[in-house]
Design brief:
Layout lengths: L8 H21 L1 H22 L4 H5 L1 H13 L1 H4 L1 E3 L2 E7 L2 E3 L1 H17 L9 H20 L3 H6 L1 H9 L5 H20 L6 H21 L9 H23 L2 H12 L10 H12 L11 H4 L11 H33 L4 H25 L17 H22 L4
Antiparallel strand pairs: 1-2, 2-3
Helix pairs in contact: 1-2, 1-16, 2-18, 4-6, 4-7, 6-7, 6-17, 6-18, 9-17, 10-12, 11-12, 14-16, 16-17, 17-18
Length: about 425
């Protein structure tokens, strides 16, 4: 069939497989939620069908309106939002809830793609760089004020898209250094109880060696190194104030970080509880798993939120190492496929949107699995297409169908 040429069959197949396997696992945890997720999947497919029949230029032309709408929905949470699990990031309509941040990611992706595809855009131009970062920062700041730390981390995905367009990798290095110094300083302060001044002196010595090396060996002008010297001084200062900042965090957020240092057993009655039973469920699955609806931890409802953020522990227990590996491979191939298709788009708008979408999936996937296995603090990030929830599934499905529609038009374009 000629009309089907250009539809990415591998991507669509993986999307359907992930959604169907998710419904099976959610149904195992709680049957009525599995049935609801099936309805959400049907709605998502219907919306996807509508998207496929829309004009391709619609998304580009309406990107600013969709972006502003997404930001306004986030701001509206302050007067009209409903607090669930300690966070006021939901709207409630009767028996239905909606998380607007999922849709704000779509608006930000479209707006960023629209701006970067402008002929005047040049990532090395200060104005272009500041504007593109502002497009990301505006919804990011609102999300921070909610506060929704997990969703804020996802906004890093947009920086990956900018990196593809020529943004210097030094920005990632600086961000990693600040995060690393913050975590190491708190680790040294508690539980090791080491005087942080030693850590500060080490940072300054390493920084001084780096400056001397650049001036003496690479013959660089000292004035050109001033921004880097400023960052070294800020890192040294951060090593001292990190414990003070950490103490200002809410207790449950402090504990979620401390679980990384001290282990989940020390917080087994509070922040470590989910992780303790999640790891127990995954470990008990063995090579082939216990079978559908046969997981003692899953069926015993020992893991809170196991149908949403902790759904992967159900896969680990009931489908084992083999099922978990197949699921991870499906995600890896799907995300890799989106990156591959994005890279091969003729249109800059399509490419940037594709990179935003793939990077959002990647961040969600890595953090969620890291969180469930104790490699990352619990921050409340769903597993795309897999965690129970209409907002999350619909938003990820909309992004999927928009990108496949763009790819379809690109493959059938004569340009």
């Amino acid at each position: 069939m000629k009309w089907a040429e250009g539809i990415d069959k591998l991507g669509m197949t993986l999307y359907i497989l992930l959604c169907v396997f998710a419904i099976i696992n959610i149904h195992s945890v709680k049957a009525e939620l599995g049935e609801k997720q099936l309805i959400f999947f049907g709605i998502s497919c219907f919306v996807g069908l509508i998207i496929f029949f829309m004009r391709t230029k619609f998304f580009e032309n309406m990107s600013a309106i969709i972006y502003v709408g997404g930001v306004l929905l986030l701001i509206g949470l302050f007067p009209f939002g409903t607090e669930i699990l300690g966070q006021k990031n939901w709207y409630k309509f009767g028996g239905f809830t909606m998380q607007p941040v999922e849709f704000a990611k779509i608006g930000t992706s479209l707006m960023l793609a629209n701006y970067v595809s402008n002929q005047d855009f040049n990532i090395n131009n200060q104005r272009s760089l500041i504007t593109s970062l502002a497009i990301i920062a505006i919804p990011g700041v609102v999300v921070l004020m909610i506060p929704d730390v997990g969703s804020l981390l996802v906004f890093v995905a947009f920086v990956i898209a900018l990196y593809r367009e020529g943004l210097s990798g030094k920005l990632f290095l600086v961000g990693t250094l600040f995060a690393g110094v913050f975590l190491i300083a708190n680790y040294l302060n508690d539980p090791l109880k080491i005087d942080l001044w030693y850590f500060t002196v080490i940072i300054l010595i390493l920084g001084a060696i780096w400056v001397v090396f650049n001036v003496a060996m690479l013959h660089k002008n000292i004035y050109s190194l001033l921004p880097a010297i400023g960052i070294i001084v800020l890192l040294a200062g951060l090593s001292i104030v990190s414990p003070i900042v950490f103490e200002k965090l809410p207790k449950h957020q402090q504990e979620r970080v401390e679980v990384l240092y001290k282990g989940e057993r020390e917080f087994r009655d509070t922040s470590g509880y989910n992780l303790l039973y999640s790891k127990t469920a995954i470990g008990s699955g063995g090579m082939l798993g216990k079978g559908y609806k046969q997981g003692s931890v899953t069926q015993g409802k020992f893991v809170p939120e196991q149908e949403t953020d902790y759904i992967f522990c159900t896969v680990g227990e009931e489908w084992g190492f083999l099922g978990s590996t197949i699921l991870i491979l499906c995600y890896a191939i799907f995300i890799g496929r989106i990156y591959y298709l994005a890279e091969n788009q003729k249109s800059t708008f399509n490419r940037v949107f594709g990179y935003c979408f793939a990077s959002i999936l990647l961040i969600h996937f890595v953090i969620n699995l890291g969180m469930v296995m104790g490699l990352f603090p619990t921050v409340g990030i769903p597993l795309p297409f897999f965690s129970y929830g209409g907002s999350s599934l619909l938003a990820f499905s909309i992004m999927t169908f928009i990108f496949f529609k763009l790819n379809y038009a690109d493959k059938n374009s004569l340009v």
